[in-house]
């Protein structure tokens, strides 16, 4: 029986000698003549006979000795450029090329040593399989392969090979870092040989425990790589900020980030990618963003020169490092605010530069911004300034919208910032509401003429766009009502359709409450039309019944507008100069009734009767100051027998004074003369209106129906007037200019009144809101009441806290509320 | 009735095994020779290497075997290797046609299975051995049994507890006879025991076992509120114990150190088995 002495003992040494010889052959690449079975069997025998430990130690010792010889081979490739001095000194002593070649030679040698070690250990592991599985497992020993890797680390990388010299691990690190630096400087280095060495560092652990994050790569290479990169990019970033422009910088930074990502893939380890990119982002972006944005060629420059692409780059860069993009956001906000302030200041300057005919208002002017009051009569220039302001604000917004869309990928954060900045610009301008309303007014009167539907639509949209930003919607409403009122009553609007379209847009944007009164105005207009028609029919019917009595040529026609009081801001028609107190919708009290000649009074009373039939319990208040009249006039010297004169109601009343039925045919009125005071007494027209109308009738050359004594521009007390028999005009139709017509920028007096009015209405709104809140809550601390009140009102205007406090005080006085004495924080209680 | 697909699958599995056996006997497509002395087996690398790590390593890499397509093995019994190759192809072998006693044969099979890393073969051999010695009443007294023990303790590795425990169980059961000097029919066994100290030591340890001091049973009281029910537990450091109180229904599981605060007394008790 071939019983094989397995039951008997084996001697270690002869068997080991066989194995040792074979291992040498394997390491010298002569394995093909070796029998695997023989080697396996011998190793198996030793382990089976409990000589596993001896075998294990012998193998380790063999590898240690072998690798020591490999180390000297590797050390041999270290040439002068790599050995000269330390990291700093060595650099300068050899050319880049020499250093690169020397480095590659070293890296190649080390790579080869590593790869061969792996191959040989693979074969040894196969041969020693029984030892691994039985001895190592039972005795909790590292596998021989892992052990041999540790031996490689200790013998090759960590053993001091010459005094005063760093170990090879250190040399390797420096060489790789040096090669990477060369690559960054544009040298072509061999990525594969570096990558192979990185694989080695990734496969080796610091200790026998093989803890995952104790890999040599992670502990002995990566931290140095990152810190060296940090230094490099810090320096590069600083240099670039000084030397190049912002666009170039952005492109460079982006390229560097991509490059480092690629480098990790091709040369180092993918696991490093996020870390190195973080370093580059830190040094080239995060820490430099502020500097980059504030560079001379920075964001402001890019905006000025429409460098959308470069703005896009800046955006992309900052977006990488912070989703909030704080620096870019701040910069954009600043630029918008600056540009907006320029527009606002230009508007103010334009209004101030306008010719001044009135003294500057006293300093009690309480408008914000320390602005000087605008002269009341510099009207046209101001209107222009208003139009210009709106156009410029729109242009500003369009411009940044385009930037946001094209360069910032319509980013949410930046859009929000833009909107907020635009709102700030608009709201920091105290006349924004008025200017926007004027802008719409101008377009309604002139702008939309001959425009296509789409163009009109765009105009409306623009108005809404700006309007959306206005915080004090109530102020805007006041102006808009005033302007709309004039447009409607003076028939200045190009198209009622467009007006209504505008209102419906506002309704969508600002809500029903906002447009309710505006819509009521339109309703009044329609109703008035129906009333006028109805009345005309009524009169025609009466004339038929009366058989023409009392009518005939003298029956004046009437076109009437019945306006609901409170809805219409009729004070808009007051002349800017000291007029007679409050002359609002029903401000009848204290006013002197205008004296009408009988033929006019008949018409008036006729309509009042007619109206009273239709609506009982309503009182009509006549706004004579706002009417106009068509009068037929005969002038003996004029080439037309009859002139159709269109003039204000007041002018008509004045003219009628000089009419005389008895002498009508001959127009021989020459003798009748009246003084200013007599005219006033005969008509009761307020002096101011009277003077202005007389100016039109007796001073304006084209409509000088009256002759004034003495002849001068100004109307003064004691002036005398008589019929101008010599009047002549080549036109049959003559329109008497009406002073105070269009919508212009307010004078400071008007402005103060508007403000006072809006303050009053705000006061009511605040009181109402406070009461609403308290009624619901019964008891509420002060701070919370303030908060809720502000929230409730925010869609109308920004309430002033001081005003809210005052209103609360006043509500307490009037016993709507009371202070809660025992409360820890100041609180109020609602008194039902 | 098993579902239809299971029947199909079982049939397919059976066919696979048949086909593999046919491959072994027909020697078609063989690409590897296994030699032992003058015996040669023509086998398939793909199959042998898949089933044995030894052959897998031998056939890969730069060694002579990979180049020549011949693996020459040594120190083995041809009939054992033959059955091992059968097992590789068929997952089964039969020892009935060997000249060797089944005990000895199966011990050798375990050794071969361990040497050549054939999956599950050692376990199969041990269970066959166990079956044999448990069912053949006199097996424990045979000379082959003693020889098998000797080989088991020298040709398989120490950590193979399955084989050793199977043998030891039988030895301990009959220790009163086997080790008695006056029973000369067991002289061969006694001689083997004297020459195989690692075996004798294990027998001694097993025989001493009933003399062991039982674990200390301490008395603990119920942690439930106001419940003074008590119980005994042998819990030692590192263990956890779960206990349900019959009296108050308290139930929880915790570790040794926690239970110590509920300990009433330590009562070492020696219990005879």
Plain-language structure description:
- The complex is a heterodimer of chains A (832) and B (273).
- Chain A is mostly helical.
- Helix content of chain A is 62%, strand content 4%.
- Chain A has 31 helices and 9 strands.
- Chain A has helices at 12-27, 36-48, 52-76, 80-83, 87-93, 96-127, 129-138, 144-157, 168-184, 191-203, 216-243, 246-266, 273-286, 289-294, 299-304, 308-321, 326-353, 379-406, 412-427, 432-447, 453-469, 473-489, 496-510, 512-546, 598-614, 649-657, 676-683, 687-698, 748-777, 782-793, 801-813, and strands at 628-633, 643-648, 673-675, 706-709, 720-723, 733-735, 779-781, 817-819, 827-830.
- In chain A, a hairpin with a 7-residue loop joins strand 8 and strand 9.
- In chain A, helix 6 (96-127) runs antiparallel to helix 8 (144-157).
- Chain A is elongated.
- The N and C termini of chain A lie far apart (120 Å).
- Mean pLDDT of chain A is 80; it is low at 1-5, 355-379, 547-553, 575-590 and 662-670.
- In chain B, helix 2 (45-51) crosses helix 3, helix 6 (102-116) runs antiparallel to helix 7 (121-135) and helix 6 (102-116) runs parallel beside helix 8 (143-155).
- Chain B is 51% helix and 14% strand.
- Chain B has a 3-stranded mixed beta sheet. In chain B, strands 5-4-8 form a 3-stranded antiparallel beta sheet, with no helix packed on it.
- The longest helix of chain B is centred in the first third of the chain and has 23 residues, at 4-26.
- Chain B is built from 13 helices and 8 strands.
- In chain B, a hairpin with a 2-residue loop joins strand 1 and strand 2.
- Chain B is α+β, with helices and mostly antiparallel strands.
- Chain A binds chain B through residues 1-2, 4-7, 31-38, 40-41, 44-45, 47-48, 50, 122-123, 126-127, 129-130, 133-134, 137-138, and chain B through 37, 53-54, 57-58, 60-67, 71-77, 111, 115, 117, 150-151, 154-155, 157-159.
């Amino acid at each position: 029986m071939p019983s094989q002495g397995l039951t008997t003992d084996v001697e270690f040494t002869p068997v080991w000698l066989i194995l040792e010889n074979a291992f040498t052959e394997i390491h010298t690449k002569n394995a093909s003549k070796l029998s695997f079975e023989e080697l396996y069997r011998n190793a198996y025998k030793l382990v089976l006979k409990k000589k596993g430990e001896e075998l294990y130690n012998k193998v380790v010792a063999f590898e240690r000795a072998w690798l020591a010889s490999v180390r000297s081979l590797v050390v041999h490739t270290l040439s002068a450029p790599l050995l000269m001095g330390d990291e700093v000194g060595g650099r300068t002593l050899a050319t880049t090329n020499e250093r690169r070649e020397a480095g590659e030679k070293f890296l190649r040698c080390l790579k080869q040593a590593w790869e061969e070690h792996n191959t040989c250990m693979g074969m040894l592991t196969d041969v020693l399989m029984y030892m691994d599985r039985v001895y190592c497992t039972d005795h909790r020993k590292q596998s021989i392969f892992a052990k041999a890797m540790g031996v490689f680390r200790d013998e090759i990388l960590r053993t001091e090979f010459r005094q005063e010299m760093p170990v090879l691990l250190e040399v390797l690190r420096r060489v790789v870092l040096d090669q990477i630096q060369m690559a960054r400087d544009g040298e072509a280095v061999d990525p594969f040989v570096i990558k192979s060495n990185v694989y080695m560092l990734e496969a080796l652990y610091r200790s026998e425990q093989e803890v995952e994050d104790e890999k040599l790569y992670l502990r002995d290479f990566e931290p140095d790589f990152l810190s060296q990169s940090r230094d490099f990019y810090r320096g590069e970033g600083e240099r670039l900020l000084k030397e190049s422009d912002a666009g170039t910088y952005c492109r460079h930074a982006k390229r560097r980030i991509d490059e480092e990502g690629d480098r990790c893939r091709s040369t180092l380890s993918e696991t490093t990618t996020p870390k190195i990119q973080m370093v580059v982002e830190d040094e080239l972006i995060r820490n430099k963003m502020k500097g980059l944005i504030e560079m001379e060629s920075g964001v402001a420059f890019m905006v000025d020169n429409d460098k959308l692409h470069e703005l896009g780059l800046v955006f992309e860069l900052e977006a990488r490092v912070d989703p909030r993009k704080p620096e870019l956001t701040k910069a954009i906000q600043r630029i918008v605010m600056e540009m907006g302030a320029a527009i606002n200041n230009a508007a103010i300057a334009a209004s101030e530069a306008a010719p001044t005919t009135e003294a500057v208002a006293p300093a009690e002017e309480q408008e914000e911004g320390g602005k000087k009051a605008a002269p009341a009569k510099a009207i046209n220039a101001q209107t222009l300034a208003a139009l210009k302001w709106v156009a410029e604000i729109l242009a500003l917004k369009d411009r940044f919208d385009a930037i946001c869309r094209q360069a910032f990928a319509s980013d949410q954060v930046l859009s929000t910032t833009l909107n907020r900045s635009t709102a700030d610009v608009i709201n920091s301008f105290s006349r924004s509401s008025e200017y926007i309303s004027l802008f719409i007014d101008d377009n309604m009167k002139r702008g939309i003429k001959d425009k296509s539907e789409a163009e009109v639509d765009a105009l409306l949209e623009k108005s809404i766009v700006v309007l959306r930003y206005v915080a004090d919607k109530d102020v805007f409403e006041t102006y808009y009502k005033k302007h709309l009122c004039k447009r409607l009553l003076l028939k200045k609007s190009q198209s009622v359709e467009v007006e209504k379209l505008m209102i419906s847009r506002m309704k969508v944007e600002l809500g029903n409450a906002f447009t309710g009164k505006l819509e009521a105005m339109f309703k009044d207009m329609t109703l008035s039309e129906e009333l006028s028609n109805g009345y005309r029919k009524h009169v025609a019917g009466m004339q038929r019944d009366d058989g023409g009595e009392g009518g005939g040529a003298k029956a004046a026609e009437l076109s009437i507008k019945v306006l609901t009081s409170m809805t219409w801001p009729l004070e808009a028609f007051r002349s800017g100069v000291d007029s007679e107190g409050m002359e609002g919708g029903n401000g009848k009290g204290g006013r002197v009734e205008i004296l009408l000649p009988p033929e006019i009074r008949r018409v008036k009373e006729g309509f009042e009767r007619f109206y009273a039939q239709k609506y009982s319990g309503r009182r009509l208040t006549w706004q004579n100051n706002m009417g106009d009249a068509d009068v037929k006039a005969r002038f003996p010297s004029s080439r037309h027998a009859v002139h159709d004169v269109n003039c204000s109601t007041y002018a008509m009343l004045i003219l009628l004074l000089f009419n005389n039925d008895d002498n009508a045919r001959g127009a021989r009125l020459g003798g009748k003369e009246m003084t200013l005071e007599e005219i006033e007494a005969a008509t009761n027209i307020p002096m101011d209106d009277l003077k202005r109308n007389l100016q039109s009738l007796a001073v304006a050359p084209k409509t000088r129906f009256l002759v004034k004594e003495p002849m001068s521009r100004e109307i003064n007390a004691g002036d005398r007037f008589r019929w101008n028999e010599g009047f002549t005009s080549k036109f049959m139709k003559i329109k008497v200019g009406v002073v105070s017509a269009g919508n212009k920028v307010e004078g400071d007096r008007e402005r103060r009144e508007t403000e006072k009015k809006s303050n009053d209405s705000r006061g009511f709104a605040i009181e109402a809101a406070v009461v609403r809140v308290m009624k619901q809550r019964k008891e509420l601390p002060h701070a919370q009441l303030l908060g809720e009140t502000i929230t409730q009102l925010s869609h109308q205007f920004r309430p002033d806290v001081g005003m809210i406090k005052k209103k609360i005080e006043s509500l307490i006085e009037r016993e709507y509320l009371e202070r809660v004495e025992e409360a820890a924080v100041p609180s109020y209680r609602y008194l039902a | 009735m098993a579902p239809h697909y299971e029947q199909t699958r079982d049939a397919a599995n059976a066919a696979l095994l048949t086909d593999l056996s046919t491959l072994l006997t027909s020697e078609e497509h063989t690409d590897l020779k296994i030699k032992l002395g003058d015996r040669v087996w023509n086998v398939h690398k793909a199959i042998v290497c898949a089933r044995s790590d030894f052959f897998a390593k031998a056939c890969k890499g730069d060694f002579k075997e990979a180049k020549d397509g011949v693996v020459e093995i040594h120190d083995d019994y041809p009939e054992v290797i033959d059955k091992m190759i059968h097992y590789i192809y068929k997952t089964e072998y039969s020892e009935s046609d060997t000249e060797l006693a089944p005990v000895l044969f199966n011990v050798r099979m375990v050794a071969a299975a361990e040497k050549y890393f054939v999956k599950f073969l050692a376990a199969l051999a041990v269970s066959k051995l166990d079956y044999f010695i448990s069912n053949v009443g006199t097996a424990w007294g045979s000379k082959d049994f003693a020889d098998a023990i000797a080989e088991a303790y020298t040709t398989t590795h120490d950590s193979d507890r399955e084989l050793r425990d199977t043998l030891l169980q039988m030895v301990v059961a009959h220790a009163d006879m086997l080790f008695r000097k006056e029973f000369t029919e067991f002289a061969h066994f006694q001689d083997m025991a004297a020459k195989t100290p690692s075996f004798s030591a294990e027998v001694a340890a097993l025989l001493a076992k009933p003399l062991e001091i039982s674990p200390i049973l301490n008395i603990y009281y119920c942690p439930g509120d106001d419940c003074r029910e008590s119980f005994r537990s042998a819990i030692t450091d590192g263990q956890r114990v779960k206990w349900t109180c019959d009296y108050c229904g308290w139930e929880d599981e915790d570790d040794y150190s926690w239970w110590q605060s509920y300990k009433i007394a330590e009562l070492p008790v020696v219990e005879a088995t």
